[in-house]
Amino acid sequence: MKLDKGAQRSGLVRHRVATSATAVVLGVTAALGSGLMTGAHAETSAAPTGLVLGVGANESQRVVSWYTPDNTPQVVQVAPTSKIVNGEFPANAVTFPATVAANSVNGGYNAHATIDSLHQNTAYSYRVGTQGSWSTTYSFKTQDFKGDFDFLFFGDPQIGSSGNVDKDGAGWKDTLDVSLAANPNAELLVSGGDQVETANTETQWNAFLASDKLRQYPWAATIGNHDVGGKAYEQHFWTPNTDRSAPYYNGSAATRSGGDYWYTYKGVLFIDLNSNAYSNGSDAAHLEFVSDVIENHGADAKYTVLVYHHSIYSPADHANDGDNQQRRQDFPTAFSKLGVDLVLQGHDHSYSRSYVIKNGKKSHPGEQPGSAQVAQGPGGVIYVTANSASGSKYYDLTAPDTNEDPNYGPDPLNPKSHWANSVENQEHVRTYVKVEVRDNKLVVENLRSGTCAAPNAAVELNKVSWCGPDSGATPAQPVGSAVDKVVIHPYRGNGWDNRADVATTTAAESDWLQ
């Protein structure tokens, strides 16, 4: 489709109406594997950079974000991959207009556009830019819009934290390659935050975004504490249904980035929080956001999954940070009351899986450490903390400290661990979390994506003194082996009432919820 230059204004171009888009894509299917990249290349040196495919508001959307060197109208051009001939898009390819804004990081511009009205089980190819200045062409594949699916959760790539961007980037790329080779039909890549070490350092962002997997599978971004202090995070990732008002930010207006957002995917309601904002009423604001989203959309969801960066049941260096102690008081009772099923967290560069937690306490005192099957019961929530996905930095497990935080002491069944956690693990090898979503269960599995061998920056650079299970006493296990696996049987009753009332409730005033 040719751009209508007479319609160009404020970085936008017209695109075909939805009926035309539907006509283009109706009935097209392809046996092409997920994430195949086609061979067309950029036509000029001024082509867009930093492309990343993001999650949309639902299964039929994707959001594409990129950098562009000048403030010209930008689009995403999309066609079924079966219609691409010799790398050329068909004349009736659909375009979606981009919003273009000045880039506060590198002096250029950033752009984002939403691809809408996608069909299920269809391979699509896309490129971004404008006529004469296109990006490389990439492809992605939609799957069934209903039913079972798998997604992958990644903790803290934090590119640059080892001091060697190239080694960190190599570990991150390898984890993406390993995890998607093992799970080619995974439908979402979910972030635990801290994509980079320093918010506005574009060399780190370039290394994070180097893998084409991030242009072929949708990345559901989460903002970590190392992603704040600049605008690069939201310039690289545009997220759906996002509230960027003051309580969901952290820092000054000139540098703050993030916000809270939500989306639905095949019966799962995902809610993502900017946990960097936690004081001065921000936790209450987050709970209000969660409550409102669940009240309006929870009835249509089989599961509710929360994602944020700071692990409240952290097992390692951040276990007793003051902000985590605050969140441990503010969040758990409300999450139980609201019927949250699973909470995914990062920040502590180690792996943990909680017992079933209800109202901030172990729900079933008899649940054994490392149980392979758990039943949630009313108000039961599982909390998972992801280890480093890049190998750039690991934190060792800490012993429970009753003096510093008497509410986060040892587990009576396993005194070396904190009371909340069924499993705590650190081997100084890269891992990722696979979540299988099934109609009657969730399966959570922590899988090794590396060994003690390179790429493993923290080990290569002697940032750690041992590697392998049992503090290095046992040889490293093979790539693809499981650290932990649990089958979660959800509660299907209607025991979560008064959802709207939870919004303004924190631990100090929540006795009525117990």
UniProtKB/TrEMBL annotation:
Keywords: Signal
Pfam families from the UniProt entry: Metallophos, Pur_ac_phosph_N
Name of this chain's protein: Metallophosphoesterase
Residue ranges of every copy of the Calcineurin-like phosphoesterase domain listed in the record: 151-351
Stretches assigned to coiled coil: none
SUPFAM superfamilies: Metallo-dependent phosphatases, Purple acid phosphatase, N-terminal domain
Gene3D superfamilies: 3.60.21.10, Purple acid phosphatase-like, N-terminal
Recorded GO MF terms: acid phosphatase activity; metal ion binding
InterPro entries associated with the record: Calcineurin-like_PHP (IPR004843), Metallo-depent_PP-like (IPR029052), PAPs_N (IPR015914), Purple_acid_Pase-like_N (IPR008963)
Organism: Streptomyces brasiliensis
Superkingdom classification of source: Bacteria
Signal peptide per UniProt: none
All residue ranges annotated as the Purple acid phosphatase N-terminal domain in the record: 48-142
